[in-house]
Amino acid sequence: MPFTTKTGTTFTNISPAEQSQVKTMVAAGKTIWDLANMSWIYAGAYCGTLFEKLDDPALDRSKFPPGTTGDCFVPTYRYANVFSYNADLYPNAKPTSIKDFFDTKKFPGKRVVYDYPKAGLFEAALVADGVPADQVYPLDLDRAFKKIDTIKSSLVFAPSYGAIQQMLVDKQAAMVITVTARTIVSAQSGANLVPVWDFNTTDIGALVIPKGAPHKALAQQMLAFVTEPAQSVAYAKLTGTAPAKPDVDLNSVGYSDVQKKFNAFLPDRGTTLEQDKQWWIDNTDALTKRWTSWKVG
Questions:
Q1: Which InterPro entries does the record match to this protein (predicted)?
Q2: Dist. CA 80–CA 73, nearest whole Å
Q3: Which of 69, 74, 80, 104 has a CA positioned 20 to 30 A from the CA of residue 46?
């Protein structure tokens, strides 16, 4: 591992990183993790109580894209939730806008989404309903649910990204809004997917430091290291995501053709909207409860 080579630091991997474990360790004053691959939403909601604030100068927030950082997190990579369709299932008219995802008369067929409200569906619903992308936040949830209701009978709520991939490969779903890393894998597995570059949301992946981490300074060094250009490029090439910092030339990544096809950060990819971090930190729990009730209602 490059960081080990550079610093002599060794790692012990423990999976999965459950939020409940962080709470238990911190409450007992016995934190044993230094880094966790965990949602920035949780880190933002419990910043300073369950997670350490980042104060290493090497993690200068000004070096990251606007709207992608918090006191307790910085992005380690960037990704997008993109609308794609299976071209084999639409041999004639083709979807061309996010509105088509919500038009089951013109484009019948199942739509698969990840069973989690932050996966791009709510922003897409509002834009499809006529809300300008720069006015999507704060989310008008009543309006969004009303729009999603129009296709509820055609929606499939996937319990995992693996399930999404399988449905796309098996043609059990005609359309999808999901992270592009998964559409890339699906396409590599034979799904004839086409992205629709009209509107998509972008977000970040992050590593966070549990409160009381025994090696906080070293953990911050690791965070700074993985956001350096060389490491960012290596991860982007492996996954088809984008580097955390905008000063990395995407042409230097060496994306494969299929990765380029689904990469929302390349030029001419329609309207992109960075998901509002603070809105999701403040509203995820309540929206998840409403989402769960709505699905069975």
A1: SBP (IPR006059)
A2: 18
A3: 80
Query: In whole angstroms, how large is the CA radius of gyration of the chain?
Result: 20
Q: How high is the pLDDT of residue 6?
A: 87
Q: What pLDDT is attached to residue 1?
A: 74
Question: Could you count the other beta carbons within 10 Å of the beta carbon of residue 42?
Answer: 20
Q: What angle do CA 176, 177, 178 make, to 5 degrees?
A: 105
155: how many CB neighbours lie within 10 A of its CB? 19
**The listed CATH number (3.40.50.11010, 3.40.50.720, 3.40.309.10, 3.40.190.10) that belongs to domain 2-77+203-261:** 3.40.190.10
Extract the residue ranges of the chain whose pLDDT is less than 70.
Answer: none
User: Rounded to two decimals, what is the model's pTM?
Assistant: 0.92
Whether the bond into 2 is cis, omega within 30 of 0 = no
Q: What is the domain partition of the chain in residue ranges? A: 2-77+203-261, 80-202
What are the pLDDT digits (tens) for 239-278? Answer: 999 998 988 899 889 999 999 999 999 998 999 999 999 9
